[in-house]
Amino acid sequence: MSYGDQLLPMEKVLRDPVHDYVYIQHKIILDLINTSEFQRLRRIKQLGTTSLTFHGAEHSRFGHCLGVYEITRRICDMFARNYPSKTPGDGGWDDHERLVALCAALLHDIGHGPYSHTFEHIFHTDHEALTVQILTSPDTEVNQVLRQVSPEFPSQVAAVIQKTYPNPQVVQMISSQIDADRMDYLLRDSYYTGTDYGNFDLTRILRVMKPYQGGITFAMEGMHAVEDYIVSRFQMYMQVYFHPVSRSMEVILDHLLERANELYQNHSINAEATPHMLLPFFNNDFTLHDYLRLDDGVLDTYFNHWRDSKDQILADLATRFLDRRPLKSARLTEQTQSLLPKLQQLIEQAGFDSHYYTATNDSYDLPYDAYDPKMKKPRTQIELMQEDGSLVELSTVSDLVRAITGKVSGDRRFFFPKEMLSDQIDLFNDVNQAFQAHIQNDRLIL
Fold first, then answer.
1. What is the model's pLDDT at position 138?
2. Which residue ranges in the chain fall short of pLDDT 70?
3. At residue 156, what are phi and psi to the nearest 5 degrees?
4. Is 417 left (phi over 0), alpha (psi -120 to 50) or beta?
5. For 391, which DSSP code?
6. pLDDT of residue 426
7. Cβ distance 389 to 310 under 8 Å?
8. How crowded is residue 241: how many other Cβ atoms within 10 Å of its Cβ?
């Protein structure tokens, strides 16, 4: 029996608050979970700064990856039982694809770094490219496990994540508008944030999924479950992922790392506060080993050191981040954009460096988007299968989905120090009053 086909003597189960149990049957899956690269995901929060808004959101990318694996395992079971391929090319499920699907599901986020999206923005890293590197580099434990299946297997798993794998069914399980990744993070993030927005009927959706030659479709009778999922995703983005406080803490984190980088480049950072594990990134010359050493705790430790920095901006931003002192914000429109230079000047007069204490931040999302081949990254549309086997695109038969298709939701905000809203009588009171005259009902006004 080959390594890839080896099953554990007894199925292993992991308790999970979202899926009840995660079932591990293949030896390779347990071996991958036990690699150092996968264990590192325990030390990286799934939602970054969101735990500073929703205090329960302390869950990690480790738990999310296990959840994506578990949903993918259930899909494979459902497909193998109900839609097995009988002849090559008939559009049914070939269960020989199970192992590559399970490994891609488990490892899809293994390249994420600490506070990943902010870190990527500052240091121009790419978590998907790093995921592929972790899978294919002979220096990683993950690669050594995958190679035991075959020399080509690491590249095959990477191809699923890169969306170049030849079987679209496998790709769409992991990456589409309704995939195991999104389904797990909506349910998991909803559970840990203590909100109900992300809940939908996972069992029903899995029951109505069907493989076909072009990928994965859904039975027409399951349309309402799919609608519910689309609305849940929309609500989670509006209420949780785009929350102004979480975005404010991301701004502080972004500026904190930028300030540390600037001080290092100018040789102005204290020797005792030198972030040695970040230097390869400050120098834009890092190895995969450098990257894998990082997690949220490493960054938080440096932030703690920086509290005592002689540089006031670095010390203040570190303190604001660690002690959760968010910036305030107000909605910004094209009409009020012209106010920004004046507001930044007032902030400077109040004693703040406007570069490090202000920001504009956009958060927009399309709740659902019909397939448009002209887009740079066209989304895989959701298709429903009718009784005669023909396919229809979801928004053509769902009034609810049609109403939100292509509608961009979200906002653009201007972030500034909370001190600008102070009513205390002090040296800067006139400055504060001039600033506050342009804010009303969470919006900038002319």
1. 97
2. 364-380, 424-428
3. -65, -45
4. beta
5. E
6. 60
7. no
8. 19
76 burial class (0-12, 13-18, 19+ CB within 10 angstroms)? buried
* Cα–Cα distances in angstroms (integers) from residue 164 to residues 96, 159, 161, 167, 207, in the given order: 18, 5, 8, 9, 27
Distance, in Å, from the CA atom of 317 to the CA atom of 356, rounded to the nearest integer, reads 9
- Residue 39's pLDDT is what? 98
Q: How far is CA 354 from CA 333, 348, 349, in A?
A: 20, 6, 10
Find the angle CA(13)-CA(138)-CA(286) to the nearest 5 degrees.
105
pTM assigned to the model:
0.94
The one-character DSSP state at 216 is E
Q: Look at residue 114 in the predicted model and tell me its pLDDT.
A: 95
Please give the full DSSP string across 306-342, using - where no structure is assigned. Answer: HTT-SSHHHHHHHHHHHTT-PPEEEE--TTTGGGHHH
pLDDT at res. 229: 94
Q: Which domains does the chain have, with CATH numbers?
A: 3-240 (1.10.3210.10), 244-325 (1.20.1250.30), 327-366+409-445 (1.20.1250.30)
pLDDT of residue 374: 47
Q: What is the C-alpha to C-alpha distance for residues 416 and 327, in angstroms, rounded to an integer?
A: 5
For residue 26, the SS3 value is strand
- What pLDDT, on a 0 to 100 scale, did the predictor assign at position 366? 60
- Record the tokens describing residue 298, joined without a space: 């490493």
